[in-house]
Amino acid sequence: MHPGKQQYVVARAAYSEVGFKAQHQPVERYHKTALDHVRMYFRCSTSRVKRILLSLFPIVSWLPTYSLKEWLVSDIVSGVSTGLVCVLQGLAYALLVSVPAGYGLYAAFFPILTYFFLGTSRHISVGPFPVVSLMVGTVVERMVTDDSAGANSTIFPADMSKEERQVWVAASVTFLSGIVQLALGFLQVGFIVIYLSDPMISGFTTAAAIHVLVSQLKFVFQLTVPGFSGPLALIYTLKHIFTHITESNVADIVISLIIMSVVFVFKEINDRFKSKLPVPIPIEVIMTIIATGVSYAFNFEETYSVDIVGSLPKGYQTPLPPNTAVLQQSFGDAFSVAIVGFAVAFSVAKVYSIKHDYVIDGNQELVALGISNMFCGAFRGFAASTALSRTAIQESTGGKTQVAGLLSAVIVMIVTLAIGFLLAPLPKSVLGAIVIINLKGMLMQFREIGPLWKKDKYDCLVWVIAFIAAVLLGLDIGLGAAIGFELLTIVFRTQFPQCSVLANINGTDLYRNRKDHVNIYEPEGVKIFRCPSPIFFANIDFFRTKLTEAIGFNPLRILRKRNKAIRKIKKMLQKGELMATTKGYVETADGHRPNDSDNENDKNEEDPDAAPDTRELPLRVDWRSLPAGIHVPGVDTHSIVLDFAAVSFLDVSAMKGLKSILKEFVRIEIDVYIAACDVSLLLEKLERCGFFDEEITPEIFFLTIHDAVLCILDRHDSIHTLSVSNGKVTEDKEKLQVEEELGRETARCSQTHSSESPGTEA
Amino acid sequence: MHPGKQQYVVARAAYSEVGFKAQHQPVERYHKTALDHVRMYFRCSTSRVKRILLSLFPIVSWLPTYSLKEWLVSDIVSGVSTGLVCVLQGLAYALLVSVPAGYGLYAAFFPILTYFFLGTSRHISVGPFPVVSLMVGTVVERMVTDDSAGANSTIFPADMSKEERQVWVAASVTFLSGIVQLALGFLQVGFIVIYLSDPMISGFTTAAAIHVLVSQLKFVFQLTVPGFSGPLALIYTLKHIFTHITESNVADIVISLIIMSVVFVFKEINDRFKSKLPVPIPIEVIMTIIATGVSYAFNFEETYSVDIVGSLPKGYQTPLPPNTAVLQQSFGDAFSVAIVGFAVAFSVAKVYSIKHDYVIDGNQELVALGISNMFCGAFRGFAASTALSRTAIQESTGGKTQVAGLLSAVIVMIVTLAIGFLLAPLPKSVLGAIVIINLKGMLMQFREIGPLWKKDKYDCLVWVIAFIAAVLLGLDIGLGAAIGFELLTIVFRTQFPQCSVLANINGTDLYRNRKDHVNIYEPEGVKIFRCPSPIFFANIDFFRTKLTEAIGFNPLRILRKRNKAIRKIKKMLQKGELMATTKGYVETADGHRPNDSDNENDKNEEDPDAAPDTRELPLRVDWRSLPAGIHVPGVDTHSIVLDFAAVSFLDVSAMKGLKSILKEFVRIEIDVYIAACDVSLLLEKLERCGFFDEEITPEIFFLTIHDAVLCILDRHDSIHTLSVSNGKVTEDKEKLQVEEELGRETARCSQTHSSESPGTEA
Fold this sequence. Notes:
The structure is a homodimer of 762-residue chains. By secondary structure, chain A is of the alpha/beta class. Helices cover 55% and strands 6% of the residues of chain A. In chain A, the strands form 3 sheets. In chain A, strands 4, 5, 6, 7, 10, 11 and 12 form a 7-stranded mixed β-sheet that branches. In chain A, strand 11 (671-675), helix 29 and strand 12 (701-702) form a beta-alpha-beta unit. In chain A, helix 7 (110-118) packs antiparallel against helix 17 (362-378) and helix 10 (198-221) packs antiparallel against helix 20 (428-437). The first copy, chain A, starts with 6 loop residues before the first strand and ends in a 6-residue tail after the last helix. Chains A and B meet through strand 1, helix 22, helix 24, strand 4 and helix 28 of A and strand 1, helix 22, helix 23, strand 4 and helix 27 of B. Strand 1 (7-13) of chain A pairs antiparallel with strand 1 of chain B.
């Protein structure tokens, strides 16, 4: 090797894999077995235990480095702003769960306390999320019916009020979903989050924003909407709203529109003058206070029959064990809640962890959310995840750590304990309007579609499918469908490889697509075929079709025709119509054509797909000059090189298919070479699987395309009729023939490699 | 290029992709757009129309070449044997549909008539299949209740008997499933069959055999088993049978055991003396005739209360339009029936098409089965697919074409029209025993597991999961789960690539895993990293981890430490604690350590992840000899080569991740080169997606690893301190610096390539 300036000069032996291995014996290495990996996984050491404990309490790693000077002010501002929104959203989402509004404050308080210690995301605001709330609400509606004689009435004490029952059901479902999350976390199932690709998360969260939007419409229009659930729930809800739109309250619509416009304008101002404002204007809070004041002053409730929040319960209540009957009957729902809650929280957390460049841990998030939900459920709250809008507020108002979250919980506590009564006159439509306007950021993700389509069609498709599935099927089934489709795209990407025929760039050892270049050299009779993807059950037939197209003929057809021709020749020899002369087979009779029907009789004797049996023939058959009356399509290819550089794996179906393809070519005396194949991944596997036999040997594997082509040229340069040699292409037979025919020794490359290739370093 | 004997001698310019492109301008090619493909798909030509018509009537291609002499005898023998089994199975499976036994003869007759013309499989025996029959039976049981006042009673005429209603429901569901199959066929959805890999089909058909076995147990024990359906139906059925086993009829068990043993022995004899017997002994038929005779003679029905077939309806009835109310209420069931029926028929057909080496067409099979089911449903039959056992008989008794199938239909017709009454005394347990014993072949597929595990763990897992899913979840859901898992394995296979670090084989241009060889040369400061799989969302993090492990340090950590160090140096320079001399930075004060807390103030000013900003510094920072008090981990790598030969695709997530990884390395002044990357698939895509900017240029792409290494050696051989050059690694800056520092022109490889690389052909 001459590493001379900008010159690539190499002189070495041309290697087949076998020859290379003989000269450069690989080291015997111990490869870890599955058992070793399991053992390693359960290995115990103090540093490991310490690491696990640290990962269980992420707060230990970030709180000591907390920078009071830099972060505290931002966190306080963010915590207060978020806390006020927490209060507002808690009230709004409690209505979706069909429990009194005050319990929403519990759901906005308890989960944060535990997440503060256990969570790995620094920016998400843990608490009620509308879709999850809606899902819990479905169970509540199902279990607690107005009809006190209903089937479920036996599971509650007789003296319990309807409200208490509703709260108990919601708390029990929440507790169960927490158990599910905790279990998944300990089972280390958080790894599923690597399957949440960026386009999928983007599409899914955009769909979630649509769900939130629709869930808030009923407050904007002040309509009673039944709790639809399952696929197409969104459509039914919209249909219900639009069919009942005439019943909506004009006062509420006006209030909502005013709130929305004002909040929108101020948010734009906040955005534009970000650098000049010391702190963003907390416009939502200001508008809520104004709206509450105005509503109280002009008595909106009675004057315009505006729906108001009403009085809130004061203080906290004792913990409540979950209702076992509810646990049994709601496992499916709790599982959906657990998965959707986690998926939403994690996907939002991932957005911010990428933006602020820190690591979040899926398993730990599951554990944190699980414990938070169990804690919250025990204290009569309902399922927590994160609200997209609230997290956006926490981050955009400058929240740096979960200290902001903790402060928001303090605000919620203050409202619960002290000033809750002040919120009683607040119109619900104000809550709805604020939630809707905060969805802007998530809905803006629609703009990603265009650039994504230009970058990668499959990823764009994943976005669109994730969005449509989550909108139409609901977030739970939609998420499953989206992940399924996303994984399917990996199959699609590899399923239809852009196979190409390569040729040599003049004067180099490089091979490129022959269609891409003009001055390109394709050795005569050699086809170099590249498959740029793994080969497996779903594309082995495609691979065969493309290879056949590239070669220009179907080897099986040629083989069957040749076998038929050989039978004819044998018959004609028997009948004396042909004579074997030194010039080949010569007809003796005057152009007598063999009768086709004669041949049908012995059809059953021989397998038409076996290698031609020419042992009984006195002479080789030269397929280029056959006796009259026998036609076999001509073959002008003597060697095929398959470039397997990008074939990263082969499965059993592919190995079987590849073997049958190789056999077909070998039997019509076309040599197949496989180049640049990964030795440790593929070649060793093929050997292990019994891929090789007397027809297909490991000798066909070459290090590079150029090595294979050199060997081919070497073989076919001197012996131009080798391609029509007799019988199977095995080393000894062929060699003997070559010697017989040409009467001289010919240097044989693959022969030499395996024996005594000299070290030829330049 | 010297194609000399067994010598690989090359002397050419070392190329980067950019340099290569400049010298070998690729041809401008028109690439087909999606629209072109659609246009092509709908293009119309006479040959195309002819081909489509031919593919719609496969009989046109095989019947004219039918060899009377050779095939007719086999087909007659096979047809008669299969016909008798058709009769037996038709009777048995009709009981699973909850219709009178005689209608099973219709289901065994009508579908064959149409499949003969339309089907592409030569060996499957179309007709009733127990699992599909059971699925139809579930609908019948649901729709036709004993309670005549039930909700569904309004959909039938009041004067219709229960039996007639059952038949009508079964026929309607069958008709609907036929419509579904036909629609799927015309939509060309038959391509889904490429997702049925060999191990999956094997596992699935084995599970189907278990289902058939269990469905026949109730006849063997003569027990009444309720029609379980859905997941775990098999378990419930078995549980029911074993809890009620004391109620079983000993006479039936004895009959079954006798039939099973005799049939088993004779089948073994048939197998062993295959070559000596002119025709296999039709033992099932003989035993059925004997059993019927004995049952009649000793009046089994009354003496031992054996359950017998009873009288069959004679002849055929007029066609019946499907019941529209049933069609509306059973779409889901009909869809499952259509899919399972097709999947079973196709997977069985594929087994025999591989064995006998002919091509079957998934779409055409869908069309054929669809029309057959519609035809059968119109004539009061029930859903047809193929029975595994019956097809095995048709093939093993020598059936060559569907002529055998047609003859079996004739036999069924003869029984229906003439001699049906003779079968009345036949015990049902005889039917069950014969069906069970014929499952042997399918159940023997269990032996595939061992070899499969040795060949490919994933494929073995697919077999096992397909089997377990189909057994436990039922064939419909199980099939979906199996396909889902099978596709998931493609993701798994690529998800955890075995990345490796390569090194040069002495004296060659070859690079192999450095762990595998002893005499291997790793250029100093160069790491060659190979990722042997595509990179996408699910493994980009894995790729990053493995790369970081291979390099030995985390570039982001180094970058942040360096930025911190530069801030310290600036501060020390300002304070006069450091002086810039020709020997580098020299401390002036007596070992004064910079105060850590000082640096915290300006943390917010600069992005810790940006490239170090050294413009204000008077001298380059030599990271190897820093002033006292400033510590930055040492980096002994100056170049990384990524071998992308096997990276067959990158998705958007991977591109984003790769870009951030590359940036991190570039910013700590490590050059990254990408070698052997597919130009048309990857490089062009990266260019299209805006992957390149001023930090990452297309110049980093090289044709082979060796080209990249040559360039690296060239750069670093003469300029050993280049890796510590100042600022960003862009062409001009660096060049200037090199000139400044070394005061001489240095030949730069990537520079030369893009401008005036001479044609250096040897």
